Amino acid sequence: MSNHIQKHRSITPETENLLNTQIMMEAQASAAYLAMASWADIRGYANAAKFLYDHAEEERAHMLKIFHYTNEVGGHALAPVTTKVSTNFNDLKNIFDIVLTQEIKVTQAIHQLVDHVLKTKDHMTHHFLQWFVEEQREEEKVARRIIELFDIIGESGIGMYMIDEAIGKIK
Ligand code: OFO
User: Fold this and answer.
1) How far apart are CA 154 and CA 19, in angstroms?
2) Which tens digit of pLDDT belongs to each residue from 2-21?
3) Closest residue (by CA) to atom 3 of ligand 1?
């Protein structure tokens, strides 16, 4: 980055690094959702697959939101490199357990970022991150509701069909 650009930045290099780490995490989450969507798709869980495909898109949108913000405030957003994701799962319940674990990890990372910008009095980035704080609350809530369906409906008989139907109705 040229000195000219560096002089006009609103975020510290440390915040820039943390935002780039978050960009990578969102991209990784998107790839993980895509792998889970494919698993559900080829097994006929049409609604679960749609939910997971949609979330793969959402995570990519989150990644781009942070990407653009980083550049807007004078940082340098780096194109994320993702690592290999799991493509095989025990069953659909296993997938949604992973979804919730993954979302909780993202929440923790967002909270760490918020802690950092509070400490460094970076009000702009703090304001920007509030959208993600709210988004994570919503995403965890939805994942928990889906996991509950496995207990409420039960997996035997036509249970899996009904669970997939119910997933299609979750907002
Ligand atoms: Fe659900 O992870 Fe993005 O923010």
Assistant:
1) 41
2) 566 666 788 999 999 999 99
3) 59
